[in-house]
Design goal:
The chain has helices at 3-12, 21-31, 94-107, 131-139, 206-215, 224-240, and strands spanning 46-54, 60-69, 74-84, 115-118, 143-147, 165-169, 182-187, 196-202. The protein is an alpha+beta fold. The chain has an 8-stranded mixed beta sheet, with helices on both faces. Helix 3 runs parallel beside helix 4 (131-139).
């Protein structure tokens, strides 16, 4: 599948980022019903990482996408895009601030990844529609949210060994239909380091999301495609100055 296929999917998907707070929340509630939380990671090894960096005290965003072969951690493609964003920083609505630049970066790729790991949330989100879900739905590629901090949910004991996981479940009112619902996993990617919060974005199961993160992790806490995208986005910001 080439990048032209991605472009056709983006063009055919009707989504609007330039909206106000109320419309953004309504859009999340409407689109989340289209998510497919199914799919395994069997034979997936061409994995993209996507991340952004912002100008300090500014609204210019630098979005980077790095595609790796996770069997070797070789970079096989990368792309980036810089632009001014007008959507404010609002927790839970980061896709409206970061999404347009990330989508533009994906349009510049020559290789279509088999899966994408986003530095953000998938369905482990107050409206079950974080950055990885929103952009995964637009790109129509299996997508995973891999966040350094928890946004919602509660979890129990987690072993300090690499590969250990524990469920991340919603802690809503006991009478709520969603109370206790599985929203992701807390994952230890290296022995003794702080865990990551992993959840499906779109077109991947809970276990598939965990498997993609672990198979994409090398010597460090963060999956290698995310580390590479993070470094590229910061490099672009520094060079722009």
């Amino acid at each position: 599948m080439g990048i032209q296929n991605i472009n056709k999917k983006i063009i055919s998907f009707n989504v609007e980022f330039n909206v106000d707070y109320k419309e953004a929340v309504l859009q999340q509630a409407r689109l989340r019903d289209e998510l497919v939380i199914e799919g395994e990671c069997r034979d997936i090894h061409i994995v993209a990482g996507a991340d952004v960096s912002f100008e300090k005290d500014g609204n210019r965003i630098f979005a980077a996408v790095v595609v790796m072969d996770t069997n070797t951690f070789e970079v096989v493609d990368s792309a980036h895009h810089s632009m001014i964003t007008s959507f404010p920083y609002i927790p839970g609505l980061l896709s409206f601030r970061e999404g347009p630049a990330i989508i533009k970066a994906f349009e510049n790729l020559k290789i279509t990844p088999q899966a994408i790991i986003f530095d953000g949330q998938g369905i482990a989100h107050q409206r079950r529609f974080g950055l990885a879900s929103h952009l995964g739905l637009i790109l129509r590629i299996p997508s995973v949210g891999c966040a350094k901090t928890r946004l919602v949910g509660e979890f129990g004991e987690l072993s300090r060994e690499k590969g250990s996981t524990t469920p991340l479940t919603l802690n809503s009112e006991p009478s709520s239909e969603t109370s206790g619902e599985l929203t992701g996993y807390v994952v230890r990617t290296k022995n003794g380091v702080k865990p990551l919060f992993v959840s499906p974005g779109n077109m991947i199961s809970h276990q598939g999301a965990v498997d993609i993160v672990l198979s994409s992790t090398g010597k460090y806490r963060l999956p290698e495609p995310i580390r590479a995208a993070h470094n590229l986005a910061n490099k672009l910001r520094v060079e722009f100055k």
